[in-house]
Queue: 4 jobs
Job 1
Amino acid sequence: MRWPTLSLGSVSKVRLSAKPSAIMCWLLLWTLYSILGGFLFKLPPGVAIAFGLLAFAFHWFSTLIHQLGHVWVGRRVGYAATGIQFWWIFSSTLYPADEPALPTAIHLQRALGGPALNLLLTIVAGALCLALLPVGGFVWRFAAILAVQNLLAFIVGFLPLGFTDGSTLLRLRNMRLAQKR
C-alpha cells in the first residue's frame, strides 16, 4: 500500500507537503530531543518533552528556511519553485515539471540560496549562543541547538549525497567542464 503525501498548507505562496516518512522522523526527532533534554540537561520529564518539541520545531524551522532560500532565489532569477516537500529528515524544493533547461548560472544561484540562509542563521544563533554563554540556561541551550542544526544543515547540504545542493553544484561543475572540452 502506498501512503499519500500530506498537504501542510502553504508559505509564501509555495505548497508545503510531507511524505509519511517525514512524520515518522519528526516524531522520532521529538523523542530524541526529549531524551537529550532529560539525560544531558537533567530536565524533569515534562520539561524535557517540551524541550524536545521546541528543539524539533527549530529543526523544522531550519529546514523550512533552507528551502525558502531556494524559493526566494528562484523567484529573483525568474524560475520560481512550486512547492517544498519534506521526506525522512530532509526536504526538497519542487520546481515545475515543464521547466525549461536552465543556464548553469541560474542553477548555481538557486542551489546556493538554501545554504546561504542556513549560514546566516548559524551565524546569528552562534552569536546569540556566545552572548548567552555566561548566563547559560534554557535560552542558551536553544541558541546552541539552533546554531548546531543550521551548521549541520549547511555542511550536509554541501556533501554530494545525490540529493543535496552539493550534488547539484558538482553536476553543474561537471557540465561546465564537459562544455569546455
Job 2
Amino acid sequence: MGVTAINLLGISGSIRSKSTNTAILKTLQERLAGTATLSIIPLNDIPLYNADHDGDGIPSSVRSLKEAISSADGLVLCSPEYNYGTSGVLKNALDWASRPAYQSPLKGKPALIMTSSPGLTGGVRAHQQVRDTLISALGRVIACPQVVISNVYQKVENERLSDESSISFALEAISHLVQEVNLLRRAEARS
C-alpha cells in the first residue's frame, strides 16, 4: 500500500489583506513541496460565535471551516499578538470549531502553533493563549520549540516571509507535526 499524502490546513489569525501571518503561511505552503500539502482557509466570513446558531443552524462559513479541519491531517495556526493576546478573529474561529464539546473536529487533531509580532517577543503571549484554547478543545498540540517570529515587519517582503532562519525554524516545526501525523496513522493502522 502506498503512502498517503499529508494534508495540512493553515489558519491565519489575521484577515488583513497584507497580513504577515498569511504571508508566513503562504511561504510555508510553497516550501513544503513533497513533504506535505498546506491549504489555507480564510476566516473573513466567520461570524461572531453565537450559541443560538450552533448545532443544526450553523452558518455555512462555519460549516466549511469545521469540514476543512475535520478533513485535514493536521493544523498550522499562525497568529498575530494584539494587546498581549491572540486575535479575536482566531479565538472566535476556534470557539466555533470547538463545538460540540468533546466531539469537535479539534479533538485529537495535531496542531502546530506559530505567532508573529513586530515586537521582540514574537507573539509569545498569543502563543500561550492559542495553546490553552486548543488544549481545552482536546486538540493535540505539537510539543516542539515555540515558533515565534519577532520583528516580523522586517522579515516579510512582497507578501512572503523572507528571513531564511525563520523559514527553516518553521519548517523544522512542521516536520514535528508531520511526524505526529505519521505516528497517529501507524497507531490507527494497528487498531
Job 3
Amino acid sequence: MSGSYREIKVWQKAIELVVDIYSCTRSFPREELYGLAGQLRRAAVSIASNIAEGKGRRTDREFLQFLHHARGSVFEVETQLTIASRLGYMPEAEVLRLGHSASEIARMLNGLIKAITSITDKQVA
C-alpha cells in the first residue's frame, strides 16, 4: 500500500475519537486523571499511533501486526467506556456515541486487515 498514513480513513477516524475522548474525560473526577481517564486517553491515542507506526514499517506483514495492535486498543477503549459509564463518570449518551465510533473504527480496521491479508497471501502464492 502506498501513500501516507494520514490518507488512511481509519486513521482519520481514530484521530477524531482521540479528540472526543480527551474532551469527554475532562469532566472525570480529579483523582481519575492518572487512572481511568489516563488509560482511556492512552488507549485511544494508541489506535491512531499503531496505524501510523505500522504504515511506516517496511512490509505489509509488519503493517498487519500494528493494525492488530490498533484493533486491540479499540477493544480497550470500549471496555474502559463501559467502566466509565458504570462508575457514572460519563453520560450514557456519550458512552453510546463514543462506543459507536470505536465500533466503526474496529469494522474499518477489520476491512483493512482483510484487504492487506488478501494482498500478502497473493504475493506468497
Job 4
Amino acid sequence: MVVSDKYKCIFIRIPKNASTSVEDLFNVADPGSVPSNHRPPYGHELASEIREKVGEEKWNEYFKFAFFRNPYDRFVSHYRYNVDFYWPDTERLWWLLTPEKNLYRRKDKVIDKRCFADFHVYDKSWSRPHGAYQQMDWLNEKDVYIANMDNIEKEWDFICYNIGLKAKLPVSNTTPKDGYKLDDDAKKLVEMYYAEDFEYYERLCKTTT
C-alpha cells in the first residue's frame, strides 16, 4: 500500500498492476508516504486490511485508487515474473517445484494446464496475502477508484487531478512476456478461476472506452 498524507490518497497495490511504478513516484513526490516493506505481503495488502490499518477517518476522507488489468495479460506477466525464482531453502514448497527448485516451465514458453495448475497453487497458497489471486480479492471495499490499465495515461491524469499531483507515472519493474503465451487449455482455466476478474474487466472496459 501507499498512503500519502500530503496528497490525501491511498493506493491499493495489486501485484503486477503498476504497483511499483506508483510507489516509486510517491517515494519522490511524498517521501513521508507509507510505502510497501520487505516483509509479506510486501505492500500488497487487501483494501480491507489497509482500511483497518489507517482507520475509518482517513479511509473515508482520502482518495482511494487501484489499477485493474486484462486478466490474461496479468496472469502471463505474473507467471513470467515468478518462474525466475528459486526456493532451494524453502523445504515446505519443494513438493510443488522441479528438482532445480523452481516452478515448472516449458522450453517453448507455452503456458499449458500443468504450468497453470502449479502456478495457481503457488499463487493462492504461498503468495501473500494467502488466498488472494484474483484482482477482485484486493478490492474488497467500496468507494475505490479502479483505473483501467488499458488507458493508463488517461487514467493517471484523472488520478492526478483528484489528488492535486503533477507528475508523470514512471515505468518500473515491468515484466516482459518474452514470448510466453497461454495455450487453449490454460486460457480456459484462466477464464474459469479468474471469472470475477473477467466479469469486472468487461464492465470496466465498457465505461472507460
